[in-house]
Fold this sequence. Notes:
By secondary structure, the chain is mainly β. The protein has a four-stranded antiparallel β-sheet with strand order 1-2-3-4, with helices on one face. A hairpin with a 2-residue loop joins β2 and β3. The longest helix is centred in the N-terminal third of the chain and has 11 residues. About 18% of the residues have low confidence.
Amino acid sequence: xxKLIVGAVLALAIVAVGVGAAPRPVDPIxxxxxTGKNPDGRPYDFDLTIARRGDSxxxxxxxxxxxxxxxIGLLEGST
Length: 79
């Protein structure tokens, strides 16, 4: 469960700023392949899809193409 929450936080923390350009609002909508290792060393691998739902975002975690969990996130600030 922790690894999925961390993946969501990281997915929403993506920053899109060009060199010398003013910050622009982040648009996290899309699909992300998430891989890494748990604190105990076991690997994890899942897909995260982020879609806009009004003023919030719906996050859907898929493992081997099967739905695992759905969550809601809010974006604060412009980066």
